[in-house]
Amino acid sequence: MSLRISRQHWQALLNELEDARRQRHLLTYRALIERLQLPSPAMQTLTAALEHLAALDARAERPLRSSLVISQGASRLPRTGFFECVERLGRFSGPPDGTAAASWHAAEVVRVFEFSYPTEQ
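-> structure tokens emitted (121 positions)
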């Protein structure tokens, strides 16, 4: 999936994730789309940006900031595509909707909360 996001939206995304990290809370996809005011197709744009960020973090051997973005549903987990992405990156393997995914995600979120990311991207 090619990344089609403006520099301003990319920087705003990084800022939102950094604020969430500092406040130790999670964001829903919908809340992020609204805050960033992403143009349509917003979900595809956000998903591509989060996958790109996951790849950058993985390459730098950092915890994945994109794990801070979750679905609004009862699971409180990221969408299935997130787990497919982290599996491609070699960070997780297993079904995206099982207890292994939930416990891996919970641990990754803690790692993100405790990590200090460089400010320049």
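The first strand starts at residue 27 and ends at 28.
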